[in-house]
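Lecture 7 notes: from sequence to structure.

We start with a single chain of 213 residues. Read the sequence below before looking at the structure.
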Amino acid sequence: MSDPMHDSSDFRRQRKSGIAAIALAAVFAVGLWLGIDHLMSPLAGMESLAARMLLTLKCCCMAVLFCLVTGVEAVAHERLTSPAFDPLARFETRRLRVNQRYLQNTVEQIIVFCVALFGLAAYCADGAQMRAVVATTVVWIVARVAFWLGYHRSAAMRGLGAPGMALSMIVLLYVASRFGHELAGAVGAIAPGAAFVLIEAVLFWGTRPQSDA
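Now the structure, written as tokens:
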């Protein structure tokens, strides 16, 4: 049997390492995003909505290629060269398990990312503002790679990819706020963020560890 005290100590150690990884990655992600947004030349021909949507589609294609497709390939290559060729044989290496979890996590997150990116592009007025779409795409791809590589080192180090999901959420909140403002002014702009914070608080409260009876 495992020692509960040891398990609790190991969890706290991993969580501390994970939080440190998130903090470090967040600083890098903010710097990278701001660098692209401020130093990149404005994109030409972005005055029309159709042009902005087309560029956003291209950005999504880049994210799918370098994050989702590579995950699919990683799992496929290992299955092709090991007894895992038969999925029902239940043969799994640690590398394969990590790659499968990365792939599943990326499938989930890429939906959030793409929706957020199209929403952001809809509220960009010109080529200068569309730099935010490119910056968001680059940071998200880098964060996915950091998550993947970090996960192979340890569970805690997957925290290096946290800024990617955080960025998608921030963009979605921005889009929701702009949309809310269109519907109901200042109150409508504040309401989505306030509602989301409330839901997060309920989730934190509802998923807190329960002590044994």
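Helices lie at 4-39, 49-80, 94-122, 131-153, 162-206. Keep this in mind for problem set 3.
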